[in-house]
Design goal:
Length: 265
C-alpha cells in the first residue's frame, strides 16, 4: 500500500483523524510506503514533533508491531527522518530515506518509488532542495524550538499552496520531466523498473512511458486516497471520502521535447 501527500497540519483536525482511521483499517499488505509530504511540515531531528504527532506515530508503531514493513520516503515537506535520533524513528520505520526507494513485487516486478519533487521541478529547485535537506542545515535548525519551526514553516507551506492554481501541472511539462528522468537520472539509480510510483504531483497519474508504468495519487486536499498493489498484481485505488469527486486520470503528452533546461509554464 502506498500513500502520499496527506499534508497533515493539526494533530486533531479532520484530515489527521481520517489518516489515523486509514492506518487502523489498512488493507491486508506486507508493506506500507509513505511516499512523502505525509506532514505539511516536520523536522524529524526535533523531538518536539514526535510528541506533537503522537497519535500518528502510535498507529505506525502498532502496524510495525503487527508485522507490516513501514517505509518512509521523504517529501519536500518532510525532513530529517534519515538522520532522526528519536526512538520512534526506529520503532515506526523499517527504512527512512530521501529521494527514492526500490521494492520487488511478485507479479508487477521492480517498483521504483519517488516523491519526485526533485524530478518534477525547475532545475534551480534542486540546489535549494540540496541545501534544506542537508544534514548541516537540519543541524542548524534543530536548536530552534519546535513550536516555532512548526508555526513558521506551516505558514510558509500555506502561502506556497495558494499559488497552486498559478503553477498547475500540465501534461506536456510532466512528460518532459519524466523523459529527462529516464534519459539522464534513471541510469544513476542503477534501476530498470517495471513500474514507477510518484508522489508530489497531486494528480492521479496512470500511464506508460518507455515500457514503464507510472502511477500516482492526488493529494489529500483534493481527494484522500491510496494505492494498493495487491498480491494478484492488480492496482486498486482506494478513495477514503465521497466529499470530493474522484479526479480524472492524468496522462502523458503524446509528443514531448526533452530539454535539460525544462521549465514549468
Amino acid at each position: 500500500v502506498v500513500v502520499s501527500d496527506v499534508h497533515l497540519r493539526q494533530p486533531e483536525d479532520e484530515r489527521t483523524n481520517l489518516f489515523c482511521k486509514f492506518l487502523s483499517e489498512l488493507p491486508t499488505c506486507d508493506t506500507l510506503v509513505l511516499l512523502g509530504d505525509i506532514f505539511d511540515f516536520i523536522n524529524a531531528r526535533q523531538h518536539f514533533y514526535f510528541s506533537y504527532w503522537k497519535k500518528v506515530f502510535s498507529e505506525l508503531g502498532r502496524l510495525r508491531d503487527n508485522g507490516v514493513r513501514v517505509i518512509f520516503i521523504e517529501g519536500n515537506h518532510d525532513y530529517g527522518f534519515q538522520y532522526g535520533t528519536h526512538p520512534s524513528v526506529k520503532a515506526c520505520f523499517d527504512h527512512c530515506g530521501d529521494f527514492w526507494g526500490k521494492l520487488e513485487h511478485g507479479q508487477l516486478g521492480q517498483m521504483l518509488l519517488l516523491h519526485s519533487d526533485d524530478v518534477v521541478c525547475p532545475a534551480s529547485y534542486r540546489l535549494f532542495r540540496g541545501v534544506v535537506k542537508s544534514r548541516l542545515f537540519q543541524w542548524l535548525v534543530s536548536p530552534v524550538p519546535g513550536a516555532t519551526t512548526q508555526s513558521i514553516f506551516s505558514k510558509v507551506a500555506t502561502a506556497s499552496r495558494k499559488k497552486d492554481d498559478e503553477r498547475r501541472l500540465t501534461s506536456q511539462y510532466l512528460t518532459d520531466c519524466v523523459d529527462l528522468l529516464l534519459s539522464a537520472q534513471m541510469p544513476q539509480l542503477n534501476c530498470e523498473p517495471n513500474m514507477c510510483v510518484f508522489g508530489h504531483i497531486h494528480v492521479p497519474l496512470d500511464d506508460h512511458r518507455n515500457d514503464i508504468h507510472f502511477v500516482s495519487t492526488p493529494d489529500w486536499f483534493s481527494a484522500p486516497s491510496y494505492l494498493h498493489f495487491n498480491e494478484a498484481g492488480a492496482i486498486v485505488r482506494g478513495w477514503l471520502t465521497a466529499k470530493a469527486p474522484q479526479p480524472e486520470l492524468f496522462r502523458f503528452a503524446s509528443e514531448s521535447l526533452v530539454s535539460l533546461g525544462v521549465k514549468q509554464k
